[in-house]
Amino acid sequence: MNDILDLPAERDLPPEAGHAMRARILGSVRPRPARTARLRAAVAGVVLLAVASGVAAVVWQRPDRPAVQVLAMGSGELSPTLRDAAERCLRWNSPQRQAR
Q: Which positions, given as ranges, span the membrane (predicted)?
């Protein structure tokens, strides 16, 4: 039988020293408790990020804001090539052409 890892006999040590030695040995063998402060900070950060993302999504997709933005421009504001491209696009997407 191997008695190297056994604590010394209580009769060889005063009671206080035996208890202190046992506490030191068991304290060094046991794993350290998790750092709750860092864990709490990480959880708080994740919760804050989730709440901020939810608020941003709600504000970004407001129902009172129109989905389409209409821009009023006169014909003099368009360049000739842009006017030709716009007319061609309107012809291609006309209801008569779509019906064919």
A: 39-60
Tokens linked to 11: 């009769």
Instruction: Report the alpha-carbon distance of residue 45 to residue 5 in Å, rounded.
Output: 45
Residue spans per domain, the chain: 34-63
| CA angle, residues 10, 12, 16, in degrees to nearest 5 | 55
Question: Over its length of 100 residues, how does the chain's per-residue pLDDT go in tens digits?
Answer: 566 666 656 556 777 887 888 888 888 877 776 678 888 899 999 999 999 988 888 777 666 666 666 777 776 777 888 888 888 888 888 877 766 6
